[in-house]
C-alpha cells in the first residue's frame, strides 16, 4: 500500500473525522429544528397548506390509474379484464366501452382541475407563510443586533452583518416557499406512486430495487461533499459585502488619493474568491441532478421493456402466473407512476444544492442570534437618579484582548460641573476611557464610580441616560432636521429645539433650508456639509438634559471662527455639568478646569493649561509643537 492509500485509510478511520461528522449532523438537526419552530408559529396556516398539498397530490396520483382504465376500455385486443386472447393476434377484435371512457375522462378532468386549484392556493399560502417567517427573522435579527455589545460591531464588518439581514434571510425564504414545498410534495408523490405500482405489478417494481439505492447512495455521497462548500460560499459573500460597504463609505478618500485601480484590484480578489466558492459549490451540486436523471431514465427503459414483454406474454401464453399477467392500460399506468416516482427523486437532487445553501444561510442567521447579548444588569442593580456628575476611576485595568492590556492602573477624578480634557498620543487609551465610562466595555480591574456608585451596580439604561455624546464621526438618519435634533430627548418642544440650534450656531442655516426644521435630510445627511452635520449633532447634545457630556473631537469639522462660538456656547450651557473632552487641537481646551495627559494607559500629567506648560512635560511639548 502506498503512502497516499495509507493516508486515506487513516482519514477514513480517524475518530476525529467521525466525531466532526456527528457534530455536523447534530448541527444540521438543530438548524432544521429552529426553522421548524418558526414555521410552527403559523401552525394553522401550515396545517391548511399540508391539507391542500395532500389533496392536490392525491388527486394527481389518481390520474395514471384513471388513464389506464380508459386504455383498458378501448383495448383493441379485448384484454380489458386481464384474460389472454385466443387465436392469432391479427384476428382478434376488440370492443370499446364508450360509457366507461366518458366517465373516466370526465373524472380525469375534474381531478386535475381540482389539483391545479389546490396547487395554486398552496403556492400563495406558502409564499405568505415564508414572507411572515422572513419578517419575523429579520425583526428578531435586527432586535438582537441592538442588544449586542459594542465589541461585536468592532470586530465584524457592517457589510457582513447586513448580508445576514438581506441575503441569508432571503435565501431561507426562497427555500421555504419553493424547496420545502417541493420536498414535501415529492414525499407524498413517491409514497403514493410506490403503493400504486405495488398494486399494479410487484414484479416490475423490482427494477427500482436496483436503481433507487444507486440514486440515494450517490446523492448522499455528494451531499457530504457539497455541504461545506455552500457554507464557505455564504462566508465568502459576507466578506465581499463587507469589503464593498467599507470601500463605498470611503469613496471620497479613494478619489482623493487616486486609489481607484488599487481598490478595484482588491475587490477583484474578493470577487474572484466569492465566484470561485460559488462555482465550486454549484459545480459539485450540478453533478447530482444529471446523474440521478440518468439512473431514472435507465429504470424507465427497463420498465418499458419488461412491461412490453409481460403484456405480450399475457396475450399469447395461457396459464400464466398471476404476477406476470398485465394488460395494456396497467402498463401505461405503471410507466406514468414510475415517472412520478422517479421525477421527485430527480427534483430533490436538483434542489438539493439550493437546500444546502439555505441550510448554510440559516446556520449563519442562528449563529448571529446565538451571539451573546450585552450582559444583563445585576438582579439588584440600582437606578441612577438625580445624577450630580461626580466621576471616579481608581486603579482601572483594561484590554480589548485580555492578554494585551491598554490601561494599566489608570486613575481619574471629575467633580460636579468640571470640564475635564483628556489628551495624549494616538493609542494611549483616551477613547478607551470613554468606552469604560459608558460601559460599552467592562473594566477588568479597579473601580469606576458615578456619584459614588460602582457603575456595574447600576442599570445600563440609567447610567447611559446620564451621558450625552458628540463624536468625531457624526451620525444623522433619514428624517427631518427637527427629528435629528430631538433624537434621544423626550418631550422637547420646537422652542427647545430652536434654542439649542441657536446655541450651536446652526439656526440660521436651518432657516435657509427649503422647509426649515421640517426639511428632510437624506441618509446620513449627505445633502449637507460635514461641518453642518457636526453642528446638528452638537445641537442634539445641547438639547439633552444629561448631567455629563462627552465630546470626542466634537469640533474637528468646523472652522476656527465657528469653533470659538461653539466653545463659548458650550461653556455657558455646561455650567453645573461634568464634561469630558477628548481633543488633539489643544487650543480648544485651554480653559478646561483640568487637563489629563494619558500615555501608555496611565495619567502621567494633570493640571490646568498654565500649570502643565509651566511643568515643561509632555503636554508642553505637544502644545509647543502645535503653536511654534
- Kindly report the spatial arrangement of strands forming the biggest sheet: 6-9-10-3-11-12
Question: What is the number of strand segments?
Answer: 12
N-C termini distance: 79 Å
Q: By helix and strand content, what is the structural category? A: alpha/beta
Average per-residue pLDDT, rounded, comes to 80
Radius of gyration: 37 Å
What share of the residues does DSSP label as strand, in percent?
5-15%
Number of helices: 21
- Biggest pleated sheet: 6 strands, mixed
Uncertain segments are 1-13, 78-93
Please bin the fraction of helical residues. Answer: 55-70%
Label the overall shape.
Answer: elongated
Describe the fold and architecture:
The protein has 628 residues and is of the alpha/beta class. The protein is built from 21 helices and twelve strands. It has a six-stranded mixed β-sheet with strand order 6-9-10-3-11-12. Strand 1 and strand 2 form a beta hairpin. The longest helix is centred in the N-terminal third of the chain and has 50 residues. The radius of gyration is 37 Å and the shape is elongated. The relative contact order is 0.08. The N terminus is likely disordered.
Amino acid at each position: 500500500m502506498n503512502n497516499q492509500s495509507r493516508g486515506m485509510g487513516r482519514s477514513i478511520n480517524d475518530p476525529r473525522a467521525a466525531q466532526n461528522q456527528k457534530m455536523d449532523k447534530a448541527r444540521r438537526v438543530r438548524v432544521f429544528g429552529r426553522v421548524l419552530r418558526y414555521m410552527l408559529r403559523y401552525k394553522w396556516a401550515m396545517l391548511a397548506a399540508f391539507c391542500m398539498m395532500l389533496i392536490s397530490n392525491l388527486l394527481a396520483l389518481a390520474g395514471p390509474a384513471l388513464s389506464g382504465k380508459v386504455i383498458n376500455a378501448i383495448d383493441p385486443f379485448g384484454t380489458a379484464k386481464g384474460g389472454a386472447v385466443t387465436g392469432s393476434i391479427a384476428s382478434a377484435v376488440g370492443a370499446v366501452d364508450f360509457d366507461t371512457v366518458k366517465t373516466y375522462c370526465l373524472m380525469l378532468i375534474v381531478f386535475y382541475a381540482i389539483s391545479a386549484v389546490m396547487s395554486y392556493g398552496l403556492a400563495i399560502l406558502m409564499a405568505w407563510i415564508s414572507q411572515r417567517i422572513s419578517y419575523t427573522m429579520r425583526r428578531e435579527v435586527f432586535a438582537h443586533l441592538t442588544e449586542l455589545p459594542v465589541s461585536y460591531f468592532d470586530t465584524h464588518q457592517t457589510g457582513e452583518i447586513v448580508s445576514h439581514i438581506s441575503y441569508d434571510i432571503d435565501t431561507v425564504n426562497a427555500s421555504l416557499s419553493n424547496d420545502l414545498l417541493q420536498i414535501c410534495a415529492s414525499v407524498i408523490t413517491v409514497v403514493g406512486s410506490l403503493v400504486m405500482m405495488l398494486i399494479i405489478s410487484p414484479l416490475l417494481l423490482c427494477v427500482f430495487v436496483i436503481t433507487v439505492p444507486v440514486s440515494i447512495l450517490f446523492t448522499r455521497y455528494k451531499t457530504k461533499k457539497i455541504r461545506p462548500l455552500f457554507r464557505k460560499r455564504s462566508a465568502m459573500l459576507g466578506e465581499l459585502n463587507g469589503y464593498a460597504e467599507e470601500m463605498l463609505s470611503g469613496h471620497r478618500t479613494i478619489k482623493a488619493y487616486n486609489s481607484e485601480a488599487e481598490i478595484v484590484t482588491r475587490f477583484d480578489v474578493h470577487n474572484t474568491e466569492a465566484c470561485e466558492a460559488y462555482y465550486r459549490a454549484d459545480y459539485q451540486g450540478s453533478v447530482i441532478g444529471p446523474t440521478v436523471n440518468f439512473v431514472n431514465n435507465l429504470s424507465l427503459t427497463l420498465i418499458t421493456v419488461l412491461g412490453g414483454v409481460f403484456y405480450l406474454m399475457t396475450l399469447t401464453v395461457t396459464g400464466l402466473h398471476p404476477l406476470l399477467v398485465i394488460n395494456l392500460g396497467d402498463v401505461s399506468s405503471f410507466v406514468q407512476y414510475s415517472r412520478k416516482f422517479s421525477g421527485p427523486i430527480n427534483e430533490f437532487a436538483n434542489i438539493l444544492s439550493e437546500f444546502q445553501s439555505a441550510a448554510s444561510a440559516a446556520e449563519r442567521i442562528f449563529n448571529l442570534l446565538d451571539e451573546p447579548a450585552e450582559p444583563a444588569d445585576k438582579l439588584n442593580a440600582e437606578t441612577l437618579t438625580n445624577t450630580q456628575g461626580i466621576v471616579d476611576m481608581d486603579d482601572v485595568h483594561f484590554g480589548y484582548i485580555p492578554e494585551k492590556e491598554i490601561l494599566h492602573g489608570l486613575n481619574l477624578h471629575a467633580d460636579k460641573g468640571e470640564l475635564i480634557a483628556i489628551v495624549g498620543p494616538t493609542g494611549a487609551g483616551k477613547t478607551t476611557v470613554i468606552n469604560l465610562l459608558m460601559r460599552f466595555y467592562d473594566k477588568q480591574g479597579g473601580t469606576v464610580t458615578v456619584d459614588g456608585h460602582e457603575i456595574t451596580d447600576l442599570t445600563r439604561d440609567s447610567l447611559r441616560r446620564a451621558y450625552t455624546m458628540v463624536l468625531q464621526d457624526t451620525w444623522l438618519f433619514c428624517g427631518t432636521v427637527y427629528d435629528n435634533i430631538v433624537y434621544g430627548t423626550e418631550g422637547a418642544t420646537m422652542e427647545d429645539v430652536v434654542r439649542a440650534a441657536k446655541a450651536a450656531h446652526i439656526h440660521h442655516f436651518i432657516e435657509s433650508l427649503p422647509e426649515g426644521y421640517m426639511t428632510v435630510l437624506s441618509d446620513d445627511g449627505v445633502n449637507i456639509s460635514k461641518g453642518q452635520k457636526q453642528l446638528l449633532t452638537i445641537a442634539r447634545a445641547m438639547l439633552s438634559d444629561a448631567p455629563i457630556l462627552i465630546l470626542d473631537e466634537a469640533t474637528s469639522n468646523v472652522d476656527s471662527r465657528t469653533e470659538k462660538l461653539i466653545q463659548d456656547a458650550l461653556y455657558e450651557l455646561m455650567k453645573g455639568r461634568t464634561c469630558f473632552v477628548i481633543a488633539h487641537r489643544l487650543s480648544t481646551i485651554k480653559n478646561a478646569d483640568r487637563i489629563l495627559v494619558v500615555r501608555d494607559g496611565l495619567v502621567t500629567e494633570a493640571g490646568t493649561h498654565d500649570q502643565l506648560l509651566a511643568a515643561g512635560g509632555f503636554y508642553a511639548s505637544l502644545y509647543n509643537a502645535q503653536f511654534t
